[in-house]
Amino acid sequence: MVATYGPSGLTTKVKSLEMHHESILEALPGDNAAFNSKNVTVKDRGYVASKSEDDPVKEVNIKPVHKMDPTPFSKNLLCVILEKPSVTQQRGIVPLCNGLDVIQQAQFGIGKTATFCSGVLQQVDHGVVECQALVLAPSQGQRMLNIRSQFPSLARSSAHLPPTNNYQGGPVNRFASPPPVNQAAGIVP
User: Fold this and answer.
1) Over the range 33-51, which residues count as b (16 or more CB within 10 Å of their CB) and which as e?
2) Which residues form the DEAD/DEAH-box helicase domain (predicted)?
């Protein structure tokens, strides 16, 4: 198989494919697979791999936004948009709010959670009282704590969208029928 790596755009032959130190023939979306490529180091190839014959992965040139233009955002989201966004927010909020997938890697405390929460909140229809977004987070660690504390406060910018928290395998059958208005299941962190 020939793979194209992103964001570098490098194309090379894959020597072997492994998952959990065992050789496999195929990797599916979501699999944590390791690629052994000919004459290419991990540092040189990038972070995302795709088949070269299909639509190969490519870098999207996203221009940083140094001051947020309120035009493309819903009025409910404008309550939480920052006037001076961090570098992470400069490159992530606009693409996420436009429905694009974004992968970001950054240090702790520079706005990743607010960036991803903004993308979800922009796409939620505030007139519909039912579950519209499901945010999954690790059950342990700092990321879960950040989402648990920040997402509800961001969602409260709209009185019509109170978040419902569901942690550690709690029941989800309450979403089968519309919940009472005062406990609307708009956002589930």
Assistant:
1) eebebeebeeeebbebbee
2) 89-139
Alpha carbon distance 87, 104 (integer Å): 11
- Asked if residues 99 and 120 have their Cβ atoms less than 8 Å apart, the reply is no
Which phi and psi (to 5°) does residue 92 adopt?
Answer: -110, -35
CA distance 103 to 74: 23
Question: Does the global pTM surpass 0.85?
Answer: no
Find out whether 113 and 150 touch, Cβ atoms under 8 Å.
yes
Q: Is the peptide bond before 7 cis (omega within 30 degrees of 0)?
A: yes
Nearest to 87 by CA among 109, 70, 117, 119: 109
**159, two tokens:** 């009185």
- The CA–CA distances, whole Å, from 176 to 40, 135, 157, 189 equal 50, 18, 25, 18
What pLDDT, on a 0 to 100 scale, did the predictor assign at position 37?
78
Beta-bridge mates of residue 37: 14
Q: Residue 97 in contact with residue 70, Cβ under 8 Å?
A: no
Rounded Cα distance, 120 and 132, in Å: 9
Strands 22-23 and 34-37: unpaired
